[in-house]
Protein: Phosphate transport system permease protein PstA
Amino acid sequence: MHAKKLDKLATSILYTIAGIIVTILASLILYILVRGLPHISWSFLTGKSSSYQAGGGIGIQLYNSFFLLVITLIISVPLSMGAGVYLSEYAKKGPVTNFIRTCIEILSSLPSVVVGLFGYLIFVVQFEYGFSIISGALALTVFNLPQMTRNVEDSLRHVHHTQREAGLALGISRWETVIHVVIPEALPGIVTGIVLASGRIFGEAAALIYTAGQSAPALDWSNWNIFSITSPISIFRQAETLAVHIWKVNSEGTIPDATAVSAGSAAVLLIFILIFNFGARKLGSYLHKKLTSA
Structure:
């Protein structure tokens, strides 16, 4: 009886803690949405931002956020896939592997501000890319690569060893087994991790303040020259993202309706991050069912 009472008490305490955490999180989300949703409109989502007049929008900042996200994923996904496959399938236990894992752990614990300063010194100053999308994407790659690498490695390790043995028994090489057997089986977990990382990239601000810049030049949609600073596909132009815009609006305070712009921008940012998170789980479940039923 005494053990049962302790078990019920411990269970009640855990449920209470979980309830408090969920309540706090739900309250924060509702607070941001309630304050921001009334200020969201089509003109707000597509209009140009204003520095000194009321009524500005977030169109360019929203586009910059998605464009920067795409460039970052183009750089970081192949690198994380290669590193994850090596650590899971090829790396042997030893000092070299332990050193690599230690470096990954250290990188994953770095604050985003430190990564931003590193990106500023290396990509902006040393490589002379200046404040640009490519500088921001490379900094975010450094910031996000450890998490994505661990996700790929964990997803591959969860594939049962019999899958690998079956591939080798058919006479295909180890590399072909990884490509055609192991990675497809681990694909739901890998895709889920990439989508979750996308939400983290989309909402990042500190690392981009020092690398991607704090201005959003007007874009010329008829100009598709990748080296032009007015081209929407240029990776060498400054690109103030939505998260940086929220910080800038609150820090400068030069816009008459700064509170409304900040609240609306925060609500839009939160909505997209929620879409990334819930979408990742749905997509992972869908792929898992698709692969298991095939």
